[in-house]
Model the fold of this input.
Amino acid sequence: MKIEIGQSRPANFREMYPGELSFSSHFECGAVVPNVLSLITTLKENGKYNACFYAGTTFAGNEGKYYVILPGMGQSHTYANILRDREFCVNFISSKYYKACGKTIEHNDDGDDEISEGGFTAKPCKTIKAPRIEESIVSFECRLVSAHDIAGDGKSVLYIGEVQLAHVEENSHLLDRICGPDGFMVNINSAQNLLSEERMPYGAAYLTPFEV
Done:
């Protein structure tokens, strides 16, 4: 049985925290689609390292060009850094660092070095001032191409960066470097039971290939 969800938030959809569904769409918990997780690194205005645990990166490319697309909230300090410096680095981290990534959320004041707070190693990028993370599987150094305020209210902004340089872990062509505990991890949003007020907890997963 299929249940239809319209643009109006159903009455039984509850928030996991106050204001959640003002900053994100009810479609995100009513029709959960897993998204790859990463740490976006930027420089704060005071020069401290910022690391944003992020789900939702997508890509587009053509011959010689590769673009990273970040949908997100316009009010975030990470996006303020991106707009100011017009650069960012996207670092894809394996599942064994999931809890370490969470520490960057717990310690994100202006004076915090969020990379160190997570126990990660900051390394210099070659084309941008923002750092990359040594423990990542893949890191993309990006320059901001454009930012689009989708709804015109400053809440849902689409950021597009052009990849300048990629740092790729050796042997990343192997399936177990892409899938499994040492591969990419994905975010499972807190899913809404469509027939009640029940919300499932947030989760994360890694990939398991079903055909080789």
Q: What stands out?
A: Residues 77-85 form the longest helix (9 residues). The helical segments are 20-23, 27-30, 77-85, 98-106, 114-117, 175-178.
